[in-house]
């Protein structure tokens, strides 16, 4: 097997729909299949040359089991192409990318289709009461969207947990982050996202999704619905904290969303064979665990583990992406890194607070936005980092080629 660097080709994404918004009528498998076909269309790669489909999805369902295989078949790829699904919660999309990259780097394959998807609007309710019947009494339905948050760690070891908002409040107290600082960061995120759309920065990365209508032609969806045009300190200050006496509000936290993103990950031989032009190559990556009750600090140990391995530092990065699960969480990470919140390298086009956080798609959404920004600004290196529910962090560095 010939070894190779892993190159990123044609990173694309859909617009990000609000919870119950413009993409609600499309199921996760439909979004994933759409993205597969868009990447094929954009690259004109013969589908028989694709050797694997890797799909990230955190809220998987037996309605479309093993999304990598299911979406590949739904997209019409040759049945000989296998597929599998990756779940590392918020880091799922980035993990799917590095999974494919390692297969390329070790010579296992030359071309993988990688897609991240989440349709949070369609996550179901479920019951654990009915497998063997229920002769008497009521049946309880659980919200799988909520369960995925509060059951992110074993209660027997860590105790009861109300959800990710609690982790953000813990970091806010520990790092002395005020409500005002969180609101200011959130306003900046929305302003950067609005400016990116206004200046046409997303035109090359966002593909329009046809959304069927009951009557008439499909409507093309091509927007990030969660951006607040009215974002200001005054508007943010008027929002109530979610936890009594806390700093986290609906305005300075990430959203629930629907979206898909993806790319090809290929070898140098594949580039020579097809004439495709890559945008970047993977330099290195890492994952690290942390206290589940402080999951937002996850990027710090992940980056600390990564940088010595690749001989680089934060100072070398032209773009630094930290997914915005919560403003307080990002500000805590920045304090550890000694980076100011207004550093122009940081999330230059917004992130989870303004654009949205469709869990399984976010890692590839961030990658897509970052690589296009690196191309515009001629940045050599870009860092993608994420905190992960349950107490993990991920980080990866990419080099523009």
TrEMBL record:
<dbReference type="InterPro" id="IPR016039">
    <property type="entry name" value="Thiolase-like"/>
</dbReference>
<dbReference type="Pfam" id="PF02803">
    <property type="entry name" value="Thiolase_C"/>
</dbReference>
<dbReference type="InterPro" id="IPR002155">
    <property type="entry name" value="Thiolase"/>
</dbReference>
<protein>
    <submittedName>
        <fullName>Acetyl-CoA C-acetyltransferase</fullName>
    </submittedName>
</protein>
<feature type="domain" description="Thiolase C-terminal">
    <location>
        <begin position="276"/>
        <end position="400"/>
    </location>
</feature>
<dbReference type="Pfam" id="PF00108">
    <property type="entry name" value="Thiolase_N"/>
</dbReference>
<dbReference type="InterPro" id="IPR020616">
    <property type="entry name" value="Thiolase_N"/>
</dbReference>
<keyword id="KW-0012">Acyltransferase</keyword>
<comment type="similarity">
    <text>Belongs to the thiolase-like superfamily. Thiolase family.</text>
</comment>
<feature type="domain" description="Thiolase N-terminal">
    <location>
        <begin position="7"/>
        <end position="269"/>
    </location>
</feature>
<keyword id="KW-0808">Transferase</keyword>
<dbReference type="InterPro" id="IPR020617">
    <property type="entry name" value="Thiolase_C"/>
</dbReference>
């Amino acid at each position: 097997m010939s070894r190779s660097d892993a190159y990123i080709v044609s990173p694309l994404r859909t617009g990000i729909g609000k919870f119950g918004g413009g993409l609600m009528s499309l199921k996760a498998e439909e979004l994933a299949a759409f993205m597969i076909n868009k990447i094929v269309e954009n690259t004109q790669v013969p589908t028989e040359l694709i050797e694997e489909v890797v799909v990230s999805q955190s809220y998987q369902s037996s309605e479309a089991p093993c999304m990598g295989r299911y979406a590949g078949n739904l997209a019409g790829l040759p049945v000989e192409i296998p597929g599998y699904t990756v779940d590392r919660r918020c880091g799922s999309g980035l993990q799917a990318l590095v999974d494919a990259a390692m297969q390329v780097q070790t010579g296992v394959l030359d071309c993988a289709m990688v897609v991240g998807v989440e349709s949070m609007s369609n996550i179901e309710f479920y019951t654990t009461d009915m497998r063997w019947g229920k002769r008497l009494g009521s049946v309880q339905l659980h919200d799988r969207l909520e369960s995925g948050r509060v059951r992110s760690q074993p209660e027997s070891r860590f105790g009861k947990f109300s959800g990710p908002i609690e982790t953000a409040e813990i970091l806010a107290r520990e790092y002395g982050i005020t409500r005002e600082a969180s609101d200011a960061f959130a306003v900046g995120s929305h302003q950067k996202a609005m400016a990116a759309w206004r200046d046409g920065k997303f035109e090359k990365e966002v593909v329009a999704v046809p959304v069927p209508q009951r009557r008439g032609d499909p409507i093309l969806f091509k927007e990030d619905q969660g951006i607040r045009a009215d974002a200001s300190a005054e508007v943010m200050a008027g929002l109530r904290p979610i936890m009594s006496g806390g700093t986290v509000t609906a305005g300075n936290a990430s959203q629930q969303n629907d979206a898909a993103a993806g790319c090809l990950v290929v070898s140098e031989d594949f580039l020579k064979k097809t004439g495709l032009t890559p945008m970047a190559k993977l330099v290195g990556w890492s994952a690290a665990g942390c206290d589940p009750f402080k999951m937002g600090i996850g990027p710090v140990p992940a980056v600390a583990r990564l940088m010595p391995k690749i001989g680089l530092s934060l100072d070398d990065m032209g773009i630094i992406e930290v997914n915005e699960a919560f403003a307080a969480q990002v500000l805590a990470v920045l304090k550890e890194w000694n980076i100011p919140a207004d550093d122009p390298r940081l999330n230059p086009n917004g992130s989870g607070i303004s654009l949205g956080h469709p869990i399984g798609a976010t890692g590839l959404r961030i990658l897509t936005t970052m690589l296009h920004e690196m191309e515009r600004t001629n940045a050599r290196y870009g860092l993608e980092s994420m905190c992960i529910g349950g107490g993990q962090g991920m980080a990866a560095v990419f080099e523009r080629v």
